[in-house]
Amino acid sequence: MAAEVQVGRVEAIMRKLETALLDGTYGANARLPSERVLAAQFEVSRNTIREALQRMAARGLLRTRPGAGVFVTDQLRTGTVSPWRQLVADHPAVRADVLEFRRVLEGATAFFAAQRADSAERARIRTELDALAAARAAGDTRAEAAADARLHEAIALASHNSLFLHLHNSVIVMLREHITQSGNSLRSLDVGVADQLLDQHRALCEAICTGQAEAARAAMQDHIDFVAARIKLV
User: Fold this and answer.
1) Cβ–Cβ contacts within 10 Å for residue 40, how many?
2) What is the DSSP letter of 44?
3) What's the CA gap between 97 and 31, in Å, rounded?
4) What angle do CA 148, 168, 11 make, to 5 degrees?
5) At what angle do helices 95-116 and 141-158 cross, to 10 degrees?
6) What is the structure's pLDDT at 93?
7) pTM of the full structure
8) Helix 172-187 and helix 95-116, axial crossing angle in degrees, nearest 10
9) Contact between 197 and 158 (Cβ < 8 Å)
10) CB count, 10 Å around CB of 232?
11) Which residue, among 178, 176, 226, has the nearest Cα to 201 in the 3D structure?
12) Is pLDDT of 4 > 60?
């Protein structure tokens, strides 16, 4: 009976930790709290925590670095990336499919982010928008593209939908490369395009941070539509 109770506790801890991985509490490559901290947090023994971590490591979700701690792997990000990442790189025509996917996925994440973002997540969105504006003012296209990608990640996290977040994370490398490629290409057309992109992001962030869900979805979709239309000129 005692063994069954222990198994039940281990499985319960695994479910809680798995949920934390899915909802972004612990992202890829994040370091988990120590066994002592987790044991206190979940009110179980350190042996229970240790067994739960070992089982998750056996499934490839966690890895142990001797002397450094336990870290989240990037397994939840893989699976749908390849071969699309290479296809996008090798076949510019696939960009249209990526943009169509982004329109649906990111339109939905913007909608739910406007409904569900907490104060910390709204602050992060504003911080990334400020970084985007600063990079634009400095004329640093590389930093601008990186801030652009981080802003979209922040919005996905604020959606509080584990499946949306999983889908976003599973293709995040491809999307980030696409954002960088399309963003840099568009910005190279003329200086006005970069200013328009910044204005679109400002409208998007304002809608999200003021809780206007439909306006946020529309702003995101307008942004993607603008990129889709302009990228045909590249």
Assistant:
1) 13
2) S
3) 35
4) 135
5) 50
6) 63
7) 0.65
8) 110
9) no
10) 8
11) 226
12) no
Question: At 56, which amino acid appears?
Answer: M
- pLDDT tens-digit series, residues 138-181: 988 888 888 988 898 899 889 998 888 777 766 655 655 655 55
Q: What is the pLDDT of residue 180?
A: 56
Going from the N-terminus, what domains does the chain have, and what CATH number goes with each?
2-74 (1.10.10.10), 84-231 (1.20.120.530)
DSSP string for 140-186: -HHHHHHHHHHHHHHHHHHT--HHHHHHHHHTHHHHHHHHHHHHHHH
5-37 pLDDT tens trace: 566 899 999 989 988 886 678 877 889 999 999
57/13 Cα distance (integer angstroms): 14
Beta-bridged to residue 69, according to DSSP, are 65
* Helix and strand element counts for the chain (H, E): 11, 2
d(CA 114, CA 55): 36
| pLDDT for the residue 162 | 80
pLDDT 10s digits, 98-119: 778 888 888 999 999 999 999 9
Token pair of 87, please?
């296809």
E runs forming strands in 35-128 = 62-65, 69-72
Can you say whether residue 120 is alpha, beta or left, with left for phi > 0 and alpha for psi between -120 and 50 degrees?
alpha
List the beta bridge partners of residue 72: 62
Quote the DSSP letter at residue 112: H
Spatial separation of the C-alpha atoms in residues 112 and 158, rounded to whole Å: 8
How far is the C-alpha of 158 from the C-alpha of 206, rounded, in Å? Answer: 14
